[in-house]
Amino acid sequence: MKHFVLVAGNIGAGKTSLTERLGARLGWQTAYESVVDNPYLSDFYEDMGAWAFHLQVFFLGHRANQHRMLANSSGSAIIDRSIYEDAEIFARAALQLGTIDDRDYLTYRRVFDLVVGGLPRPDLLIMLNAPVGVLVERIQARGREMEKGITPEYLQLLDDLYAQWMVGFDLCPVLSIPTHDLDFVHKPKHLDIVVNRIHDKLAGKEEVQFPED
């Protein structure tokens, strides 16, 4: 049976690592957030006020294309980061921080709503969670030059917005995964746990718990 799954979560939560491993394990097609070839991301981290609107518009087109292509593909697929996070997390963060003003936010939101209104719904959203302190450590460890300006305060703002978003999210079932407790990169049995929980959730089993190691 074909499945279309999205992976969501804060910066450093483990989205790319999980997407890679699930794609390899399950034979699913994968797609990733545009980082290396993103023409605005490094500028955004240097000057959020000047580039926030440009970045949001770029991501909207990029992710809408990914979403539609993989949702309509012949086999199962999984995407690293969802299009919905663009509006519900990052555009709202930009509005709160003042890097996008009310006029630009409303313009972006109108276009966003129009675009996502025509997209197929996912079968599952995998929400990755980790404490801000853990996210900071991971971001520092991977050493991306463009991410050096990311502060714990910014990550906490995003974390708060994720929590608010999840309260009203009803597009599809949600599987929450505590990535600070599960090391699916280095421990195969932890990846096994995640895979089993995904199968359970897709089968309609609502009570999905993650045991401690």
Provide a concise account of the structure shown.
With 213 residues, the chain is α/β, with parallel strands linked by helices.
Give the strand order of the largest sheet, numbering strands 1, 2, ... along the chain. Answer: 2-3-1-4-5
So how many helices? 8
Give the tally of structural domains: 1
Biggest pleated sheet: 5 strands, parallel
Specify the CATH homologous superfamily: P-loop containing nucleotide triphosphate hydrolases
Total strand segments:
5
Unreliable segments (pLDDT under 50, ≥5 consecutive)? none
Classification by helices and strands: alpha/beta
CATH domain topology: Rossmann fold
Q: What percent strand? A: 5-15%
* Helix fraction by DSSP (H/I, runs of at least 4): 40-55%
Please trace the helix and strand order, writing H or E for each element. Answer: EHEHHEHHEHHEH
